[in-house]
Amino acid sequence: MTKEFDLIRQYFAESKHQFRRSEVVLGIGDDGAILNIPPDQQLCISTDTLIAGVHFPIGASAAQIAKKSLAVNLSDMAAMGAHPLAFTLGLVLEVVDDTWVSEFSEGLLTLARQFNCPLIGGDITRGPLGLSIHIQGLVNKDAVIRRKGAKPGDKIYVSGYLGDAALALLVLGHPSHLGEDVRLLQDAPLSDCLTHFEKAYYQPEPRVELGQACASLVSSGLDISDGLAGDLGHILQMNSVGAILNIDALPISESANCCASKEVCQMAALYGGDDYELCFTVPPQNTDAIEAVARGLTTPLSCVGEITSGTVLELIDDTGQRVTFENVAYEHFQ
Amino acid sequence: MTKEFDLIRQYFAESKHQFRRSEVVLGIGDDGAILNIPPDQQLCISTDTLIAGVHFPIGASAAQIAKKSLAVNLSDMAAMGAHPLAFTLGLVLEVVDDTWVSEFSEGLLTLARQFNCPLIGGDITRGPLGLSIHIQGLVNKDAVIRRKGAKPGDKIYVSGYLGDAALALLVLGHPSHLGEDVRLLQDAPLSDCLTHFEKAYYQPEPRVELGQACASLVSSGLDISDGLAGDLGHILQMNSVGAILNIDALPISESANCCASKEVCQMAALYGGDDYELCFTVPPQNTDAIEAVARGLTTPLSCVGEITSGTVLELIDDTGQRVTFENVAYEHFQ
Fold first, then answer.
1. Window 123-142 of A, Cβ < 8 Å to B
2. At what angle do helices B190-202 and B62-80 cross, to 10 degrees?
3. CB A325 within 8 A of CB A315
4. Tens-digit pLDDT profile for residues A11-23
5. Which of A11, A36, A296, B52 counts the highest number of beta carbons within 10 A?
6. How do residues A113-124 score in pLDDT, each as one tens digit?
7. Coil, helix or strand for A267?
8. pTM (2 decimals)?
9. Is the CB of A54 inside 8 Å of chain B's CB atoms?
10. Sheet holding B119-126: strands in order across?
11. Segments of chain B assigned E as strands
12. Each residue of A210-253: pLDDT tens digit?
């Protein structure tokens, strides 16, 4: 038996944090896992890969890496309106440090249990630190959130607050990929906000309940991983429509307002990555209903603009004036 | 739109090698893919991660990396008796070279089409070269091959030839992880065998048809990725049984016999990795049937030993004499 199997057994398969759910017929320990898919449901699947130094800072803790990686994948389920079912993990480690692996598995499986989404397989290999998570979920055929479907006149909604994750990098002492214009206020009360920003960056809240509850009310939707402007752009392109966003309506957290200028907060919200909030387009007749759903879940949900029959994304402010920022959206292969 | 999306669209989603199958309701281009799972089938899933310099040599071509990576995952489906359905790809690239990505996608999708297993999603990120493939398949509830089930008296069968991939590394000029004792004959006709060994290493034949056809005849099974001794060891441990293997019955290819001594060929078969042949345990009353199935598929299938009521793996030769090799099985975290 090689060390890989010892690790998997000890820290993942037989961890006290591991758990089962009835759809999992066969879990960790074979060449594949087996799942029962209820006949009235469709399978929804997604993959996200995270690499040290690219998707999380080199010095991130094992638990932080674990939670962020799974949260990002859960967010994809939320964006589809899916119910998370189970996931597999491809973990790449430079060296095996038992403490590290133990903390990683504890962080991973604690979040997994919170979403009733057990780990059912994967592998551990040697190489530069990184991981790939593959997640399965269940969707009702008639309540899938797709990117296709937005129509002129639909209102644009976003959940939670935007820009916190991009500002978090600065607060945590890392450079911003948004350029030098994006900086903190000199007299920012950083230590007061540290916990908020750490959580925003490493433990984004997957909006799973919101996605499920809104699936039949929206015309399209996705999760915001690369900044609202870029991600909304995918919806515009796919549906051959335009949009107007009111930058003064963008939801900015109290912590962000404390630590950065209004303009920097807006740039972070539009072009920063890693927020993992949901963006929906909503037909006008459903806006009351979706706002009621969000209130019921006590999830912030803000109307930030409208789909137009144009082809571009226009930014305006509260006075209706057009605004421009230098486009600084994150580019994987700059 | 960032470059990642351009790459995915051009080389994967809209590649002339891409194809659809009816179960795929939604493929590349959204936050998740959607699959219809036929109500009488279970879902079988598996993940394999491959890292440059660990799972394939640094200098491997894009098409070689692509085909090997998908073949390894298809082999997991074969090992479960599953019918491949679809897969996702997490690709990590240091730099984007259009020629490389084009050759990669062509190799990947060509093999995918051969097994009617389309690419339905994934991501491309920046980092050290590597990839993680996640594959879905369908199984009949009553014909799943598991590792659990082997009983004393069951015969042990392996498909194809063993050891070729380990010898291929030497033939291709790479060091062997099996140690210095594993070397080629000085007067080996290497150039004659190069094509055979390149194929063995980079394009292992996923034994998908064999797995499906044998699923209801075997008591347990898996695919051989880390050498027969180590992988059979998983079956022994899981079932609390032992085994006797006749090393003179191990299937050694003609090319291997030309290039290495009998002992080196046997060591490569037992302890070399990357063969991706199937190993089955078969109740005595099913041996005639499974041999007939293999003949029908013109797939080599060799009886190499028997499950015992012991707890260890014993090696014997044709004369019944016990044999020992230094254990040199591959260890991911040596």
1. 123-128, 130, 132, 134, 136-137, 139
2. 60
3. yes
4. 998 888 999 999 9
5. A11
6. 999 999 999 999
7. helix
8. 0.93
9. yes
10. A24-26, A33-35, B41-51, B130-140, B83-93, B119-126
11. 24-26, 33-35, 41-51, 83-93, 119-126, 130-140, 155-159, 220-224, 242-246, 277-282, 301-308, 313-316, 322-323
12. 999 999 999 999 999 999 999 999 999 999 999 999 999 999 99
Q: What is the 3-state secondary structure (H, E, C) of B202-261?
A: HCCCCCHHHHHHHCCCCCEEEEECCCHHHHHHHHHHHHCCEEEEEHHHCCCCHHHHHHCC
Domains for chain A: give ranges and CATH numbers. Answer: 3-140 (3.30.1330.10), 155-323 (3.90.650.10)
ipTM of the complex: 0.91
pLDDT tens readout for residues B275-303:
999 999 999 999 999 999 999 999 999 99
- CA neighbours within 13 Å on the CB side: how many for B265? 19
Beta strand B119-126 with B83-93: parallel, antiparallel or unpaired? parallel
In chain A, residues with a C-beta closer than 8 Å to the C-beta of B39 are 39
Q: What distance in Å separates the CA atoms of residue A151 and residue A236, rounded to the nearest whole number? A: 9
Q: List % helix, strand, coil for chain A (3-state, nearest 5).
A: 35, 25, 40
Mutant choice from A45, A51, A231 vs B, greatest count of B C-beta within 10 A:
A45
Size of interface A-B (CB pairs under 8 A): 233
